[in-house]
Fold this protein.
Amino acid sequence: MDYKLAVRDNHTADTIINIAGKAGITRIGKGYCTIIAGPCAVESREKYLEIALKVKNMGAHILRGGAFKPRTSPYSFAGLGVEGLKILEEARDITGLPVVTELMDIRDLEQVYRYSDIIQIGSRNMQNFSLLREMGRVDKPIMVKRGLSATIEEWLLAAEYVLCEGNKEVILCERGIRTFEVMTRNTVDIAAVALLKDLSHLPVIVDPSHATGQRNLVKPVAMAALAAGADGLMIEVHQNPEEALSDGPQSLTPDLFRQVVKEARDLAALNKQIFQ
Ligand code: PEP
Ligand code: MN
């Protein structure tokens, strides 16, 4: 198959991504359990700084928060744009943690590059091939989320687009796929995690929030992901999910997030992963 750079050959060591931040180096990849947390979207400076500090104190290693949000309806809250990026930068400064945020449109690259440590390519853009190629020319890690209905092969080829342009720092994020099942927002593909850890040298993380769409399913799916060999989790957390401007039903309260971190820490120890 054409995903020759994304898969292991006899010489390829596991890719471990090192992100230098104020609080030291954060690693993603084999041997580490890395937790990314924060709200779906950056909604305001006050709310973001509050939740960023909370998740940091509860053990998160990387902050998340969308400034450019892909929304199904053109009338939904689509993020604060550059103002949101500046809030992320302030949170990064205050917490010392790296941040990941989505780049939707190549026209925003300069700004997203400037204010983030990891650039997220969302599910809806997983086959935006010109965007992927551009990510191959960027000297920052790229997190490629699995497309809404992408096969594992298509997903690996999306990673290959980035790798073949020279950027070796790609993280794969399983976030569930569309199936006939509608009781959950998406159907999480746990086998894909085990398969990819075997086939590829790239870090694989799981987003149990978008994968399920339901707060009460986030912890069990997060644990299943780690048991299957995931290198980390990306979890949505909001101080008041009922009032979230996007993805409230799947967002954890800080208390629930604390419980997930506690169990993830225990599982990481069993898996002999370092919980940084
Ligand atoms: C997100 O993580 O902010 C997001 C929009 O997820 P996805 O692209 O997986 O739907
Ligand atoms: Mn979301």
